[in-house]
Amino acid sequence: MALKGGRANLREIDRWDGGVGWISYPDEQMQRASHALDTDDGVWVVDPVDAPGVDDLLADLGEVAGVVLCLDRHKRDAAAVATRHDVPVSIPRWMDGVAPKLDAPVERVGNELGNSGYEVHRVRDASFPPWQEAALYGPDDTLLVAEAVGSVSFFCAGDERLGVHPMLRPIPPRDALGDFTPERILVGHGEGVFEDATPALHDALDGARRRLPAAYAKMARGMLLG
Asked: What global pTM score does this model have?
């Protein structure tokens, strides 16, 4: 199984009243997930990975209001999707380094994502390791986290439904994410958590260091076995 890429075959995930998610390359290990948020402001497309069928999925929701990147290294296919829908790529004001890499107009956002009802929260802004990440928190207590936590196998240890990114397990983002009480959690890698989301988040943050050896051992086995 390839780490990233392979044959595009869009698979829908995370359908709820406020939007939908998809994985464009379901056979890849990274399980890169993208989302479309259906808001009063229009449809906001978050960290998109493109594939045949994406525009049909978006059209079912309505008109695209914008594309937003929540991680400095999640350039993905944001520029291509934004260009097709004639909208800018929105990036938090404090996030630098990614805008020059985008072949599309860029718009900076503050603490609110347009008039979508989603708040933009800083998860990490650090130079070592280099990492700038924002989370979105909005209607019906929906939390979207691009990278700090995920549900894909290499994020999780033991029976975790949600795990902290392997690089952040020694310093889990409790201050950034610990006060949220979401009804659902959407992630940038893997399917979202729709049942008992708040306990899953708090368990991931509280157990990140304790389960670090198990997580790293699992990741090493996965790398060895391919």
From this structure: 0.94
H helix intervals, the chain: 54-59, 78-84, 174-177, 197-206, 212-225
Mean pLDDT by 10 residues, the chain (226 residues): 79 97 94 97 97 97 97 93 98 92 95 97 91 95 98 92 96 97 98 98 97 82 54
* Domains of the chain and CATH, by start: 11-225 (3.60.15.10)
Q: Which residues make beta-bridge pairs with 29?
A: none
Give the whole-angstrom CA distance, residue 68 versus residue 145: 13
Q: Tokens 């994406």 correspond to what residue?
A: 54
Q: Where in 24-118 does DSSP place strands (E)?
A: 33-39, 42-46, 64-68, 89-92, 106-109
